[in-house]
Amino acid sequence: MFAAYAARIDRDQPLNGLELGERPAPEARPGWTTVNVRAASLNHHDLWSLRGVGITEASLPMILGCDAAGIDADGNEVVLHSVIGQSGHGVGPDEPRSILTERYQGTFAEQVTVPTWNVLPKPKELSFEDAACLPTAWLTAYRMLFTNAGVRPGDSVLVQGAGGGVATAAIVLGAAAGLRVFATSRDEAKRKRAEELGAEAAFATGERLPQRVDAVIETVGAATWSHSIKSLRPGGSLVISGATSGFTPERGELNRIFFLELKIVGSTMGTKDELASLLSFCAAKGIRPVIDSTLPLDRAREGFEKMAQGDLFGKVVLTV
Predict the structure, then answer these.
(1) Residue 95 per-residue DSSP state
(2) Residue (of 270, 284, 236) closest to 140 by Cα position
(3) Which end of the chain lies in a sparser environment, N or C, as judged by fewer CB atoms within 10 Å?
(4) Strands (DSSP E) along 91-140, which ranges?
């Protein structure tokens, strides 16, 4: 079957390790379901995999891709939950949690196999392309907002780095849930787009906000860390799920953190139940993921290049 896969690891030039070509189709195994992929979406996790984060040379070649929607062997339209092992369903009970492509072949292929427990029905209101955007970036944003930040309608949230997959999802989901959403971006066009998606206002990166917020959704990392801390009200929460600009900020702002009793919460992916709730929320409220571009699988390299350059707003979707 045709697939996009990591053939080698290159920490400095990750796209050098990306190959497109034939790979073995998945073999049947008890308790697992094989899905014919109709759409899959890119995440920064895929770039990190090509850099060797989460996998080793011994794992190669590894088909990339965490997210997918498709059709199972019984003809059902389905969405995949890409966290394997946390429940023991379909794998050993002591297997630690991992994301697809860290241990198992991913979704950038004509077929993928996952534990049957990880397969959810796709709402009829969502297209395959829409549904394929949800299991990683949108699920991460959903958990950051509603589980780890614990915000309620009327609360205020700052979303750093408008344009990225998680940040875009947080803007749309937050606005739909009745939050006051502020966003930042270095790019004026992305700031305007954030406001069109429901942000109350968008600001240049580092610009002072009109008020301190209840929570910050942080995926940028070092470049925005200090601004995020300074933007929180006393007792507010900073929820972080990524650090695309680096892991070590110039200023840790520890004095503000303890004096204002701020909460720093790490967040990774989400649960199967949260994904089911996200699917239902999107279907019921007419929410559709923001898709930057849709490409056939054999043009996956173009999608990887867009993501690596940051030249996108929303998700890049690959169709099969």
Answers:
(1) P
(2) 270
(3) N
(4) 98-99, 111-115, 119-121
Per-residue pLDDT tens digits for 254-270: 999 999 999 999 999 99
284 membership: H or E segment, kind and range: helix 272-285
Classify each residue of 148-185 as buried b or exposed e, where b means 16 or more C-beta atoms within 10 Å of its C-beta: bbebeeebbbbbbbbbbbbbbbbbbbbbbbebbbbbbb
What is the longest distance spanned by two Cα atoms in the chain?
58
Separation CA 169–CA 186 (nearest Å): 18
pLDDT tens-place string over residues 206-225:
999 999 999 999 999 999 99
Read off the pLDDT band of 100 (50, 70, 90). very high
Q: Do residues 91 and 85 touch, judged by C-beta distance below 8 A?
A: yes
Ranges of beta strands (E only) in the chain are 2-6, 18-22, 32-41, 62-63, 69-72, 77-80, 83-84, 98-99, 111-115, 119-121, 156-159, 180-185, 201-204, 213-218, 232-240, 263-266, 291-296, 315-319
Sheet holding 18-22, edge to edge: 18-22, 2-6, 62-63
Q: pLDDT for 149-194, tens place per residue?
A: 999 999 999 999 998 889 999 999 999 999 999 999 999 999 999 9
